[in-house]
């Protein structure tokens, strides 16, 4: 069994009844960290002792429980939660408190089970050096006849997720256009499945996981370095995918 997931979130059992709004808010602000570390750790293909495939670091204002294997194959460790430090950090780009919790959590987990501690700390340092950015290229499409490349670039932050459309001239690598076409509140479950592929016809279509058109982009305008697009879906979907746009 490989270690596939890293999770940082307030202790579910302690907060589900006492302050679930705070638990959900904290999770929303740290989802981008879970996503980054989970993708990085999967590449290591670290084999655990077979009892866990996730490390869950659970801050709490209540009693600190002993590290244990909980639920279905989750190694959970508990740390004291400083509400004031969290409140000062949320909605900012100061991630020092979150990173401190991660480091303490990894070291505590290593005392309970064999985990790739050095690798996790290296990923943590890399994350710091890159200013805690979680960005990646989702899809590329070359249009050789037009001498263009279309890219979908994901940007997952503590406050939102956004999908950039980037147009580059193939021959010169000149970037002609880069603009946001989807933005949601932070949280993997919100944007997951909302975009998948790029298809090119009379218009440029960004399809979703069901291969249905989700974003329709005016092809002629795009080649004139203008972005004209519409989000396809119900009013609720359109609102979700255009958060603060």
Largest sheet: 4 strands, mixed
Strand content is 25-35%
Shape field: elongated
Instruction: Classify the secondary structure makeup into a structural class.
Output: alpha+beta
> What oligomeric state best describes the polypeptide chains here?
single chain
What separation lies between the terminal Cα atoms?
42 Å
User: Tally the helices: what do you get?
Assistant: 8
- Strand arrangement, major sheet: 1-2-4-3
Helix/strand order: EHHEEEHHHEEEEHEEEHEH
Number of domains: 2
Give me the count of strands: 12
Mean pLDDT over the full residue set: 95
Poorly predicted residue ranges: none
Task: Sum this structure up briefly.
The chain has eight helices and twelve strands. It is α+β, with helices and mostly antiparallel strands and 245 residues long.
Topology:
Layout: E1 5-8, H1 12-18, H2 20-44, E2 54-60, E3 68-70, E4 74-80, H3 83-89, H4 96-112, H5 117-129, E5 134-143, E6 148-156, E7 160-169, E8 175-185, H6 188-191, E9 197-200, E10 204-207, E11 213-217, H7 219-223, E12 229-231, H8 235-241
Helix pairs in contact: 1-2, 2-5, 4-5
Brief descriptors of the model:
2 domains, 35% helix, elongated, four-stranded mixed β-sheet
């Amino acid at each position: 069994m490989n270690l596939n997931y890293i999770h940082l979130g307030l202790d579910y059992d302690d907060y589900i009844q006492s302050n679930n709004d705070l638990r959900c808010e904290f999770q929303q602000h740290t989802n981008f960290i879970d996503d980054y570390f989970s993708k990085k750790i999967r590449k290591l293909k670290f084999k655990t002792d077979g009892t866990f495939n996730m490390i869950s670091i659970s801050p709490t204002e209540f009693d600190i429980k002993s590290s244990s294997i909980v639920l279905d194959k989750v190694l959970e460790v508990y740390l004291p939660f400083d509400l004031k430090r969290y409140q000062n950090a949320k909605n900012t780009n100061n991630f020092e408190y979150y990173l401190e919790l991660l480091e303490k959590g990894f070291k505590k987990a290593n005392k309970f089970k064999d985990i790739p501690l050095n690798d996790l700390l290296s990923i943590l340092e890399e994350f710091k050096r890159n200013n805690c950015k979680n960005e990646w290229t989702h899809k590329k499409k070359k249009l050789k006849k037009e001498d263009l490349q279309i890219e979908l670039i994901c940007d997952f932050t503590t406050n939102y997720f956004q999908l950039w459309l980037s147009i580059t001239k193939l021959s010169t690598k000149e970037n002609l256009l880069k603009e946001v076409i989807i933005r949601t509140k932070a949280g993997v479950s919100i944007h997951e499945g909302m975009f998948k592929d790029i298809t090119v016809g009379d218009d440029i279509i960004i399809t979703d996981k069901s291969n249905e058109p989700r974003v329709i982009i005016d092809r002629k305008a795009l080649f004139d370095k203008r972005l004209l697009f519409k989000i396809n879906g119900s009013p609720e979907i359109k609102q979700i995918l255009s958060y603060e746009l």
